[in-house]
């Protein structure tokens, strides 16, 4: 097989992502999913239509390039956002827990305990559920992504933090 595209300077960001909504309450820490995110344009080192196929990730180090992983890539048009799942993290964990209350009857508490064992700060995206199903309060700048509400938080190196918010069932007559 012939390599179609060999790009050495693709820029993007590594995001850690975890579900944390009323129905995903597990209480126990779970590994966050690592995702590489970029845009298929010249500014990010790409810009041509990307066909479906394999993609390999390397990370530079003082001893040369280190293999990170391989993934199958779907096709992406030029200018399109590219998101590639890389697997579970061995360094970033999230424990999601329900608090007091019943979201069917009013506001109920939620808590996420976020831990980062990396020697650098990381961005963690909490997927909080559909705005058609849940109303949220007590979080900073949430936004919609792929039909769901997300909150992106930066966690310091070797740090742990708790985030709390309230949730209630969305009513169809609101």
Q: What would you note in describing this structure?
A:
With about 170 residues, the chain is mainly beta. About 0% of the residues lie in helices and about 55% in strands. The protein is built from no helices and eleven strands. It has strands at about 15-20, 30-40, 55-60, 65-75, 80-100, 110-115, 120-130, 135, 145, 150-155, 160-170. Strands 8-11-6-5-2-1-7-10-9 form a nine-stranded mixed sheet, with no helix packed on it. β9 and β10 form a beta hairpin. The chain is globular and about 55 Å long. The relative contact order is 0.21. The mean pLDDT is about 85.
Radius of gyration: 19 Å
Biggest sheet: strands, sense, closure? 9 strands, mixed
Number of helices: 0
**Which spans of ≥5 residues are poorly predicted at pLDDT below 50?**
none
Q: What is the helix content?
A: under 10%
Distance between the termini: 56 Å
Give the tally of β-strands.
11
Helix/strand-derived category reads: mainly beta
Task: Tell me, rounded to a whole number, the average pLDDT.
Answer: 83
Proportion in β-strands: over 45%
Strand order of the largest sheet: 8-11-6-5-2-1-7-10-9
Q: Which shape, going by the Cα principal axes? A: globular
> What is the H-and-E element order?
EEEEEEEEEEE
């Amino acid at each position: 097989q012939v390599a179609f595209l060999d790009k050495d300077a693709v820029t993007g960001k590594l995001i850690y992502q975890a579900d944390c909504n009323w129905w995903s309450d597990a209480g126990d820490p779970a590994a966050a999913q690592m995702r590489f995110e970029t845009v298929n344009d010249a500014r990010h080192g790409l810009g041509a239509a990307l066909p479906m196929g394999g993609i390999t990730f390397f990370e530079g180090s003082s001893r040369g390039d280190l293999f990170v992983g391989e993934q199958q890539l779907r096709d992406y048009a030029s200018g399109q956002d590219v998101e590639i799942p890389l697997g579970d993290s061995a360094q970033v964990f999230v424990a999601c827990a329900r608090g007091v209350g019943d979201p069917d009857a009013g506001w109920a508490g939620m808590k996420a305990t976020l831990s980062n064992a990396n020697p650098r700060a990381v961005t963690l995206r909490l997927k909080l559920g559909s705005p058609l199903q849940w109303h949220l309060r007590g979080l900073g700048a949430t936004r919609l992504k792929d039909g769901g509400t997300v909150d992106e938080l930066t966690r310091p190196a070797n740090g742990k933090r708790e985030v709390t918010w309230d949730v209630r069932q969305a009513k169809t007559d609101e």
